[in-house]
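Justification of computing resources. Each target in the renewal requires a structure prediction run like the one illustrated here; the chain below, 134 residues long, is used simply to show the kind of job we budget for.
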Amino acid sequence: MKILLSFILTLIFWTSWGGADPQSFAVGKLLTSLKQGQASELASMFDENVDLLIDAEQIDFSEISQTHAEIILKSFFKRWPPQDFQLVHQGANSLSQYYRGLYKTNRGNYAVYILLKRNQDRFLVESIQFRKEK
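Resulting structure tokens:
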């Protein structure tokens, strides 16, 4: 009986591990980086250029470099450290994915919109917006 139980648990572990989509790990990394305010982790998922909007900071860049966006986000996360990030909605098709979430700080909340586009074999962040909730 113990052998059978051990076999079943091993089978469940390997099928769940082996069947996991690598993109779901990337999405987990994206959401965790927002929850923990890790600008470098977040920027590692950006395309070469990204659209960045942070309305409370009056930042609205189209096609900003990945490096420049990372610097701006480090400053934002330092000024507005996260208390939590909650995913509110998500959607996808074969060419893009989008996420809408709530970035919570001790001085207010931000609605966050993220658009990822397929770039060869993976999805990269093309646009990220932080809009202060009123």
